[in-house]
């Protein structure tokens, strides 16, 4: 538990990792740099979230084509870095260039440096593969994420909108070669609800672990174990 200005926030582990994230997080999808372009409004929202105990701030390079990272980063630098859990994501095209998309080693390496520059931080606490890339060998993607952990550019990595078989395949590669495994797969409550119409496939061995889930449509995440 943490208490700031009378609020009480719970914190839970990120998957099997030691790092803890607030049970609510603030995200930048469809908001900062898109529906909200006033920097003062962004500042007020982020300050309110931080003072309410939120430590998890979720962004992606594709959100408003980098504007979300820039606008949130400009405010997050006001807080002690060790009190923040900052995530971003990679996959979607950031330009018309043929290599400026997907989960190739080239795109991952170039994208993480661009995100770090826009946010204004030396490292990301969590870096998501925003979708599965059918055009890139899975081991290339997994090895690139493992290298980023070794380089200190990211602390943990996760998947987003991967199915159970894809996650299990990544975990198998990590177990076989000693790579750092993914720690989280955000799952929308809208997708998980009965009758939601989205089949995520049968549980894999990884599903026996604790994962962090969330609701992206509102820009706020609910973490659970």
Write structural notes for this entry.
By secondary structure, the chain is of the alpha/beta class. It has one domain (26-186): TIM Barrel (Alpha-Beta Barrel). It has 6 helices and 10 strands, in the order E-E-E-E-E-H-E-H-E-H-E-H-E-H-H-E. The strands form 3 sheets. Strands 9-8-7-6-5-10 form a 6-stranded mixed β-sheet. The chain has a two-stranded antiparallel ribbon with strand order 1-2. The chain has a two-stranded antiparallel sheet with strand order 3-4. Helix 1 packs across helix 2 (67-76). The longest helix is centred in the middle third of the chain and has 15 residues, at 105-119. The two termini are 16 Å apart. The model is unreliable at 189-225 (pLDDT under 50).
Mean pLDDT: 84
Q: How much β-strand is present in the residues? A: 15-25%
Distance between the termini: 16 Å
CATH class: Alpha Beta
The CATH topology annotation reads as TIM Barrel
Low-confidence spans: 189-225
- How does the helix and strand content classify structurally? alpha/beta
Can you list the strand order of the major beta sheet? 9-8-7-6-5-10
Question: Please, how many domains?
Answer: 1
Percent in helix: 25-40%
Number of helices: 6
């Amino acid at each position: 538990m943490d208490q700031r200005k009378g609020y009480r926030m719970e914190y839970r582990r990120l998957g099997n990792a030691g790092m803890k994230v607030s049970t609510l997080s603030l995200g930048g999808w469809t908001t900062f740099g898109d529906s909200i372009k006033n920097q003062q409004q962004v500042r007020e929202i982020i300050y309110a979230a931080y003072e309410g105990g939120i430590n998890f701030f979720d962004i992606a390079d594709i959100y408003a084509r980098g504007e979300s990272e820039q606008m949130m980063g400009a405010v997050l630098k006001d807080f002690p870095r060790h009190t923040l859990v900052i995530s971003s994501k990679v996959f979607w095209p950031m330009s018309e260039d043929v290599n400026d998309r997907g989960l190739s080693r080239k795109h991952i390496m170039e994208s993480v440096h661009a995100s770090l520059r826009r946010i204004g931080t030396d490292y990301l606490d969590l870096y998501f593969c925003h979708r599965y890339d059918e055009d890139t060998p899975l081991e290339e993607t997994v090895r690139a994420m493992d290298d980023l952990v070794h380089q200190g550019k990211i602390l943990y990595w996760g998947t987003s909108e991967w199915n159970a078989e894809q996650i299990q395949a990544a975990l198998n590669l990590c177990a076989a070669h000693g790579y750092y495994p993914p720690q989280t797969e955000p799952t929308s409550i809208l997708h998980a609800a009965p009758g939601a119409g989205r089949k995520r496939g049968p549980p894999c061995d990884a599903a026996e672990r604790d994962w962090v889930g969330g609701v992206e449509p509102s820009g706020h995440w609910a973490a659970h174990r």
